[in-house]
C-alpha cells in the first residue's frame, strides 16, 4: 500500500447554487469520497469554498490548496473535483493551473468527467490542454510585449525597480486604471547623480575612479552597499536621466544585441530629467575620447550562471568554474563547478567536490522558473509574504509588548522616586536612580521604534508585489534568451545561496525577496523560503 495515491477534495458553490442539491457541498464531497473509495485512494484533506464565484482570486481555499501543492512535502498526488467547472470556469485559469500542477506531479480528476491520461481519450484531452497552454504562453508573450510598448508610448513604467535617483509613483488613468510613472527621488540621491555626471564630464574621472570616490565618502549605492564601477557606467549611459523612456532597445533572442534606433520605442520627456541633454551628449563624446584608456563596459562573459551562488556543502566556499581535459562527443570541453577552497589550497583544506555545469544549471533553472511562474498566479505571492511575515512578526510583537511593559514599569518607578525626591531634594542617590531610569526608558523606546519599523502592515504589500510580479513576468518571457552573465544577475536578485546535499543530491535553493520600494543599508525582507530540486549525476 506504499504506492497508494493520496488525494485531496475541492468543492465549491456560488451563492445562487446553495439551494441546488445536486451541486451542494455535501453532495459534491459525498461523490468525491465515493470516487476515491472506488479507486482505492486515500482522501487526506478537503478544501471548501462556500458561496464563492469561480474567479480564482475570490477563492481562499483554492489558493491554499495550490500553495500546498507547490511544496515538496505536500502529502498528496491528486486533486479531485465533482466537475471540472468546480475547479475553474475560466478556460485560461483551468489550463494554466492544470498544466502547472501536472508539471509538479499533481493531477486533477473529475468525478463526472473522467479523463484518465492513460487512456486514448484522456491522452487526447491532455494533449489538447497542453497545446492550448502553449498557445496561451505564446499569446501572453505577444500581449505583454504589446502592453509594454503602449505603456512606453504613454510614458508609463513597465515594471521593475526605479533607477537610482528616482522613485515609482501611481497615477490614475482616464479609464479608471492605475499606472506607474517615475518621479524624482530623495534630493541627496538626485544630487549624487548630478555629481557623477559632473565628475565624468568636467573633472575627467572614469567610472572606476568615481566609484572609488563615492565609496571613500561612505555614500551608499542603490542597494545600500558599495558602489561597483559597473553601476556608475550604467548611470552615465542611461537615457532615463535626461527624461527619456525607451523600450525595445535590445534583442534578447540574440544575446542582448542592440537593435537599430529605428526600432526603439522612445518617449521623450516622459518624466523629470536630472541632467540636461547637452550633458548626456558630452558623456558620449568623453566616452569616445577615453576609449584608448578606458574600454567600453562589457559585462563579465563567464558562462557559469550560478557563480557566487553555489556553495561547497563542506566548507561553504563558492563553487568556481573549471573544466576537465576530457571532451564530449561533439568535441566540447566538459565544464564543472568545483570547490574554490580545494582549487586554491588543495585537498588538505577541503575535498574535491564538483558538479557538472549543464546538469546542475538545468536543475536550478527548472525549479526557479517554475517557482516564478507560481508566484505570478493571483494572490500566490501575497499569501506567501503574509504567512512569512505573520510568523516573523509574531516574535517581534512579543518583543514590542515586553518593551512596552518595561517602559511603563520604569515610568511608574520613576514617578515614585520623584515623589521621594520631592521630600528629599538633595538626595543624590535618588537623582542618580531617576537619571538611570530615563536612560533606560529612552533605550527601550529606540528599540521599540526599530522593531516597529520592521513590522510591515499587509496593506503596504500591494506596491511591492506589483513591482516584483512585473519583474518576474519579464524574467519568464526573456530569461532563456538572455546571455549567461545577465542570467547570473537575475538569479542573484532573488537567490541568496544554493547548496547540494552530498548524500542524497538534493539541491536547496534559498530564496530571499527584498522590498523593491525600500532602498537602505538594511533592506526589508519580504519573503525567505527554500526550494528543492534534484541533481542528477
UniProtKB/TrEMBL annotation:
Q: Which Pfam families does this UniProt record tie to the protein? A: Recombinase (PF07508), Resolvase (PF00239), Zn_ribbon_recom (PF13408)
Q: Name one GO biological process term.
A: DNA integration
This protein's UniProt keywords = Coiled coil, DNA integration, DNA recombination, DNA-binding
As one GO molecular function, the record gives: DNA binding
Give coiled-coil spans as residue ranges: 393-447
Q: Which Gene3D superfamilies match?
A: Putative Large Serine Recombinase, Chain B, Domain 2, Resolvase, N-terminal catalytic domain
Q: Which residues form the Recombinase domain?
A: 163-293
Q: Which residues form the Resolvase/invertase-type recombinase catalytic domain?
A: 6-155
Catalytic residue list? 14 (o-(5'-phospho-dna)-serine intermediate)
Query: Which CDD domains does this UniProt record tie to the protein?
Result: Ser_Recombinase
Name of protein: Site-specific DNA recombinase
Organism annotation: Proteiniborus ethanoligenes
Amino acid at each position: 500500500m506504499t504506492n497508494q495515491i493520496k488525494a485531496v477534495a475541492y468543492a465549491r458553490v456560488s451563492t445562487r447554487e446553495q439551494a441546488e442539491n445536486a451541486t451542494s457541498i455535501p453532495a459534491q464531497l459525498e461523490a468525491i469520497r465515493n470516487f476515491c473509495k472506488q479507486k482505492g485512494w486515500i482522501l487526506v484533506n478537503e478544501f471548501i469554498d462556500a458561496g464563492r464565484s469561480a474567479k480564482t482570486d475570490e477563492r481562499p481555499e483554492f489558493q491554499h490548496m495550490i500553495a500546498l501543492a507547490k511544496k515538496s512535502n505536500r502529502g498528496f498526488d491528486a486533486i479531485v473535483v465533482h466537475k471540472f467547472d468546480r475547479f475553474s470556469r475560466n478556460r485560461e485559469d483551468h489550463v494554466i493551473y492544470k498544466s502547472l500542477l501536472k508539471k509538479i506531479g499533481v493531477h486533477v480528476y473529475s468525478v463526472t468527467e473522467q479523463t484518465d491520461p492513460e487512456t486514448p481519450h484522456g491522452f487526447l484531452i491532455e494533449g489538447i490542454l497542453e497545446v492550448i497552454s502553449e498557445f496561451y504562453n505564446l499569446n501572453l508573450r505577444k500581449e505583454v510585449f504589446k502592453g509594454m510598448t503602449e505603456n512606453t508610448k504613454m510614458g508609463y513604467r513597465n515594471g521593475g525597480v526605479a533607477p537610482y535617483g528616482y522613485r515609482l509613483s501611481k497615477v490614475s488613468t482616464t479609464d479608471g486604471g492605475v499606472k506607474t510613472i517615475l518621479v524624482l527621488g530623495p534630493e541627496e540621491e538626485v544630487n549624487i547623480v548630478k555629481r557623477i555626471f559632473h565628475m565624468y564630464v568636467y573633472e575627467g574621472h572614469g567610472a572606476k575612479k568615481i566609484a572609488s570616490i563615492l565609496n571613500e565618502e561612505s555614500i551608499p549605492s542603490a542597494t545600500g552597499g558599495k558602489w561597483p564601477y559597473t553601476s556608475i557606467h550604467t548611470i552615465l549611459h542611461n537615457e532615463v536621466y535626461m527624461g527619456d523612456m525607451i523600450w525595445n532597445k535590445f534583442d534578447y533572442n540574440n544575446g542582448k544585441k542592440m537593435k537599430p534606433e529605428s526600432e526603439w520605442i522612445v518617449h521623450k520627456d516622459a518624466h523629470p530629467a536630472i541632467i540636461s541633454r547637452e550633458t548626456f551628449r558630452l558623456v558620449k563624446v568623453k566616452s569616445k575620447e577615453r576609449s584608448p584608456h578606458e574600454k567600453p563596459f562589457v559585462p563579465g562573459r563567464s558562462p557559469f550562471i550560478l557563480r557566487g551562488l553555489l556553495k561547497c556543502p563542506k566548507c561553504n566556499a563558492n563553487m568556481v568554474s573549471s573544466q576537465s581535459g576530457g571532451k564530449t562527443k561533439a568535441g566540447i570541453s566538459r565544464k564543472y563547478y568545483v570547490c574554490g577552497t580545494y582549487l586554491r589550497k588543495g585537498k588538505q583544506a577541503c575535498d574535491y567536490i564538483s558538479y557538472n555545469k549543464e546538469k546542475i544549471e538545468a536543475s536550478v533553472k527548472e525549479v526557479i522558473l517554475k517557482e516564478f511562474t507560481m508566484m505570478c498566479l493571483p494572490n500566490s505571492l501575497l499569501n506567501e509574504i503574509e504567512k512569512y511575515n505573520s510568523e516573523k512578526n509574531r516574535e517581534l510583537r512579543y518583543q514590542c509588548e515586553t518593551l512596552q511593559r518595561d517602559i511603563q514599569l520604569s515610568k511608574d518607578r520613576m514617578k515614585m522616586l520623584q515623589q521621594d525626591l520631592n521630600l528629599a531634594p538633595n538626595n543624590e542617590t535618588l537623582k542618580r536612580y531617576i537619571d538611570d531610569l530615563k536612560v533606560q526608558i529612552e533605550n527601550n523606546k529606540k528599540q521599540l521604534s526599530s522593531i516597529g519599523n520592521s513590522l510591515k502592515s499587509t496593506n503596504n504589500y500591494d506596491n511591492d508585489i506589483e513591482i516584483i510580479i512585473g519583474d518576474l513576468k519579464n524574467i519568464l518571457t526573456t530569461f532563456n534568451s538572455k546571455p549567461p552573465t545577465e542570467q547570473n544577475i537575475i538569479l542573484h536578485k532573488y537567490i541568496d545561496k544554493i547548496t547540494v546535499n552530498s548524500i542524497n543530491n538534493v539541491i536547496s535553493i534559498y530564496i530571499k525577496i527584498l522590498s523593491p520600494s525600500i532602498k537602505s543599508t538594511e533592506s526589508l525582507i519580504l519573503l525567505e523560503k527554500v526550494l528543492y530540486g534534484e541533481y542528477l549525476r
